[in-house]
From TrEMBL:
Entry's transmembrane regions: 91-110, 206-227, 247-273, 334-354, 375-393, 413-439, 451-473
Gene Ontology terms: cellular component: membrane
Pfam families listed in its UniProt record: PTR2
Annotated protein name in UniProt: Protein NRT1/ PTR FAMILY 5.7
Keyword Membrane appears in the UniProt entry: yes
Top-level taxon of origin: Eukaryota
Annotated gene: LOC107891476
Natural source organism: Gossypium hirsutum (Upland cotton)
Amino acid sequence: MANFKHCISSSWKWASSYIRFSKAAIFISGLIFSKSFIENAFKAFLIFYIIDSLENLSIGVAIVYTVAGDGIQQFLVILIHHLAIDRHGDFRVIILTIPCLIFGLLILWLSSLLRSQQTRNQMLYIALPVILVGLAGKEVSLEGFLRQHFVEETIVVDETKSERQQEEDYNDIVDGRASLWSTGAGFLGQFICWTFTSSLRWQQRIMVSFIEVAAAYALFICGKRFFLRIPPTRRTAVSRLKEAGGLVKLIPLWLLFIPYCLVEVAGFSIFILQSDRLDTEINPRISLHSFNQVPVSSLYVFEQFISFLVSMSTKYLIRKLWSSEEAMQRGARYWRMGVGMAVGFGSLSSAWLVERRRSDLIKKNPNNDEVIRMTILWLAPQFGLLGIANGLVSKGLTDFFYDRVPESKRYFVVLFNQSLTVIGSFLSGLAVLLGPDWLGDTIDKRQLDKYLLMLAILNVAVLPLYIFLSLMFDWNIPDEVDGRDIEIEEVDGSDVEILIEEVDGRDVEIL
């Protein structure tokens, strides 16, 4: 009985801390819903749309277009993040970028109604960059703008903990409140898209996406009077770059995550292509066609769900098991990244084995229109492992960065993390262009298994180097005051600031 009361008490304490109603959140959640909807309906399967839209296009070039588009989007994320924080604010960025997405989808929809293939291609080249601007604006501003509405001075944290841990607890509560809204809206968007649009043709899918995004934008405008608007800092790009100079120390460690970023890029390009000619039927005895199919979008939703579960559970366990030991939490986050890189190797290994079997079956069935005797569920392990790796590495990079830098430099988390994706995307495209012997004109002729094996070996090879550098060197970045470094150390359970000043060529500590 006592355990039951304790469970009820803990549940009530959690609910009272994390569940908050917000009028502004209702209107913002509509855009988050549309973001997940369009990612599932269009962005995640952009490579198939490019192949279907551009006739006589080789698979290799389609991969280059897809990964280059993702790299451009992430580069735009970095630029728009600066505009949102320093120049215009999140609200204005949302107001200006979402119409780009709506306009781009409208162009694609109208182009699908035309008969001229040349005109459709020209409109595609116009629409895609505009869509990327809109998607980048959503990625940058939506969740941060939602978070602003849950910041309260009345949030109670454990005052017996160190100042840094109190700050982390406070941020966890604020992030948790916003996450309940954003996660709920995001998964609802994915579920509805997966349920109702997976069987639609591209023309219908784009039309539905256009209507949905336009409706969400109109709803957002209606909630204008409920929104909080934090004024921008008015910092210039030059001053930000000077401030970022102290973070150069982190670059060697961050470069080790590039091989993992190649895994992420393979997830929305090569993994999707591997579903070509696979049997999507569940059971021949099921008469209803819509209930007897496993579209590749199901595997994408499965990956995203696994990623969310792993990310949240890992973060919770680290904070729960070492609630009063900050150093142990940091160490656990080091190992979290390493385990994620190892799981990424497992995902690529699974994809390599699947591709070998798939290639053998295709050679026995050269007819391009014939479904081979291999179910699409063979792809489930690699998507599941990719979801685990994503939850450990991609979702953990932010905490990993925050552990290394003072609060004054957390602004640069977007610059560091998105730069990895940009580099990974363009390296993937470069590998496709430089490896024509591996990547033939069609998915059936290419030696895709060798490319996947190379990525797997690269990921497992960099893991020992990551462990060695993590353990042998101090990657923490001290804060600065008047040109002098500040290091924060925990002494007798409390944080003590130590100024590091250079005297006669030596670093001198000043308490």
